[in-house]
Design goal:
Layout lengths: L4 E4 L2 E5 L10 E4 L2 H9 L6 H17 L6 H16 L6 H17 L4 H30 L7 E5 L14 H10 L4 E6 L6 H12 L4 E4 L4 H6 L5 E4 L3 E3 L4 E4 L2 H10 L4 E4 L5 E2 L16 H4 E2 L2 E2 L12 E4 L6 E4 L2 E3 L3 H10 L6
Bound molecules: 5-S-methyl-1-O-phosphono-5-thio-D-ribulose.
5-S-methyl-1-O-phosphono-5-thio-D-ribulose (MRU) binds next to helix 2 and strand 9.
């Protein structure tokens, strides 16, 4: 299985996603601040992978705390979690993982410090392993929704690289292929960071899953030509009514799919659902540097000083979504009810 990140005694290791596909380089983050930087600079990216990375970063920072009392430990953990929480605002998995690590700390804070440190490492590893199991389960839940012998369009990278392994949207594609379906993936290149061109194309080719790269503004014509039978994307945060934040450009793809009568699916672990947010208008959207648009591989392509907007995500209203595929089952409209019901399902994975 393609690996994205791993815990080692000398630090957290990441495949550097800013260098793919031309270079396969692993970087070692020896301090929690380096893990936070890796999230911020998108060496590691994708909502579930960000959550796992943050958990490992917290475990690393906690391990290195030079403290003698649990109250000093609590302050230290608080500071580490604050730094992690300031890396990227949209993917709720980040905050979910931070809360889970904090909860674990409170559960075991009465124990000797070395045991607390080990318990936090174990919790981060559990989050890592559960993420892979979750992706396999949601893949199995979504496989029957994929066409056999058709094209599936995806946007950004919601694959192994965006998770601890296997992927969400690409996990569903993988599960369908493993079940014997013939699927051809159309990968949107995903300007400006090119996750589709650089990462989705790379990981599908590694798995011998047929993939055709298109630039973002070709999606409509591919649909009009009958090449696309389903669209599947990941998510960074899903509001309780089903409105879904995902990579910028997802909204346009959803509208195109609706116009062409093509089902549009979202695949995500249930931890991506933020039940505290009633609709998509409450989802914080990260604004990234202008240089992501004006400079490509060191070459300036726009006039110096041009005004730029660079929201990293957009929100697809729930009405465009045919189904939200999770490890707990597939939610369909009305999502406020179906997501609420899935929230009550006891996860079978842990
Ligand atoms: O900015 P990124 O690359 O972190 O954005 C990633 C996406 O938008 C993914 O589609 C989403 O996080 C789901 S990944 C399983």
């Amino acid at each position: 299985m393609l690996e994205t990140l791993k815990w080692t005694d000398s630090g957290v290791l990441f495949i550097d996603q800013t260098k793919l596909p031309t270079e396969e380089i692993w970087v070692t983050c020896k301090k929690y601040e380096a893990v936070a930087d890796a999230i911020r600079t998108m060496i590691v990216r994708g909502a579930p992978a960000i959550g796992v990375a943050a958990a490992m970063g917290i475990a690393l920072g906690a391990r290195d705390l030079d403290v003698t009392s649990i109250s000093e430990f609590r302050n230290g953990i608080g500071q580490i979690c604050r730094v992690m929480g300031e890396t990227r605002p949209t993917a709720v998995n980040l905050f979910w993982a931070i809360r889970r690590m904090q909860r674990r700390f409170e559960e075991i804070s009465g124990r000797p410090i070395p045991l607390v440190k080990q318990a936090l490492i174990d919790e981060a590893l559990a989050i890592y392993n559960e993420d892979i199991a979750t992706n396999r389960a949601l893949g199995a839940n979504g496989a029957s929704l994929m066409p056999d012998g058709g094209g599936v369009l995806t946007h950004c990278n919601a694959g192994a690289l965006a998770t601890a392994g296997y992927g969400t949207a690409l996990g569903v594609v993988r599960a369908a292929v493993e079940a014997g379906k013939k699927i051809h993936v159309y990968a949107d290149e995903t300007r400006p960071f090119l996750q589709g061109a650089r990462l989705t194309a790379w990981e599908l080719m590694k798995d011998n899953i047929p993939v055709t790269l298109i630039c973002d503004n070709m999606a409509g014509v591919m649909m009009a030509q009958g090449k696309v039978q389903a669209v599947i994307v990941g998510a960074d945060r899903i509001a309780s009514n089903g409105d879904t934040a995902n990579k910028i450009g997802t909204y346009s793809v959803a509208i195109l799919a609706k116009e062409h009568g093509i089902p549009f699916y979202v695949a995500a672990p249930f931890s991506t659902v933020d039940m505290e947010i009633p609709d998509g208008s409450g989802i914080p959207i990260e604004e990234r540097a202008a240089a992501e648009l004006t400079v490509i591989y060191g070459k300036q392509i726009a006039p110096t000083g041009v005004r730029v907007e660079n929201p990293a995500f957009d929100v697809t209203p729930a009405r465009y979504i045919r189904g939200i595929i999770t490890e707990r089952g597939v939610a369909t409209a009305p999502f406020s009810e179906s997501l609420q019901k899935l929230g009550e399902v006891k996860p079978a994975l842990v």
